[in-house]
Write a structure and sequence with these properties.
This protein has helices at 10-13, 20-23, 54-63, 77-90, 104-111, 133-145, 160-169, 190-202, 209-223, and strands at 29-31, 40-44, 71-73, 94-97, 116-118, 126-127, 153-157, 175-178, 229-233. By secondary structure, the protein is α/β, with parallel strands linked by helices. The chain has two domains: 7-48 and 132-240, Rossmann fold (3-Layer(aba) Sandwich); 56-127, Rossmann fold, CATH 3.40.50. Strands 1-2-9-7-8 form a five-stranded mixed beta sheet, covered by helices on one side. Strands 5-4-3-6 form a four-stranded parallel beta sheet. Helix 3 packs across helix 4 (77-90), helix 3 crosses helix 6 (133-145) and helix 6 (133-145) crosses helix 7. The longest helix has 15 residues, at 209-223. The relative contact order is 0.19.
Length: 244
């Protein structure tokens, strides 16, 4: 199984001369063996280049840019890491727009990629929006095309742009949405905390806090009678160890 990279590994990955765009997609689809009566499959995005589903979105955003355009970003953790990593890998100037409430750990991580943390973006830098509806549409369409068959239920994180994308790409699809409150330190419900421990022991991999909520919702949907549930797990739990 592909492991999600830890934060300390990411800058080194960006220097290996691999085309990160070529690495986007192909995340493993794993069936839960001992939960949800065998009807729950997890699409594990932790194997993406910077360790999350946001790589798909950022790849779509970078594809629209001219080769020499600088980029800017702010605040959203997974999106910020993906932009910093892609910029480093492609030699593109990148700037993080500092905002009140940003944690020093995020600034330190993106700085390790050579990203400048600024109070105002330089003229000409393109600010990449994590809620970019068109990029989410392309990212989700690519993700959906990798599924072997149509699920009876999808369980997805309620990223703003992703909600719009699902309506555009697959109207009428049965979706269970799990809210993403964007908190740096998500507080798990009691059920999700139990599910996270259970999956670690029974299935052998670690879920992030948001991933635990998603998987718990997926198991609940299967127990309620859904014949096949596919859960988009946006990142692996490893990238949260010792950082966020």
């Amino acid at each position: 199984m592909l492991a999600s990279p830890t934060p300390s590994e990411l800058p080194a990955r960006a220097n290996r001369g691999v085309s990160w765009g070529a690495l986007v997609g192909g995340s493993p689809l794993v069936r839960l063996r001992q939960s949800g009566d065998g009807r729950v499959l997890l699409k594990l995005e932790g194997g993406q280049a910077s360790g999350s589903y946001w790589d798909r979105l950022v790849a779509a955003q970078f594809a629209r840019l001219a080769a020499d355009e600088a980029v800017g970003f702010s605040g959203r953790y997974g999106h910020s890491v993906a932009v910093a990593a892609y910029a480093r890998a492609t030699g593109r100037p990148a700037y993080m727009l500092a905002e009140a409430g940003d944690e020093a750990r995020l600034e330190a991580l993106v700085s390790s990629y050579g990203v400048a943390v600024v109070s105002e973006l330089p003229e000409g830098a393109v600010l990449l929006n994590p809620d970019d509806a068109e990029a989410h549409r392309l990212a989700f369409a690519g993700w959906l095309a990798e599924l072997p068959s149509a699920p009876s239920v999808l369980v997805l994180p309620a990223f703003a742009g992703l909600v719009e994308a699902v309506d555009a790409v697959a109207p009428g699809l049965s979706v269970v949405w799990v809210e993403d409150d964007f908190e740096r330190r998500r507080t798990l419900s009691e059920d999700a905390a139990c599910r996270r421990t259970q999956v670690a022991h029974r299935e052998g991999f670690l879920l992030s806090p948001l991933g635990a909520e998603l998987v718990d919702a997926g198991v609940a949907a299967a127990v309620q009678g859904a014949t096949q549930v596919i859960v988009l797990v946006p990142e692996g739990g490893q990238r949260h160890l010792g950082w966020w």
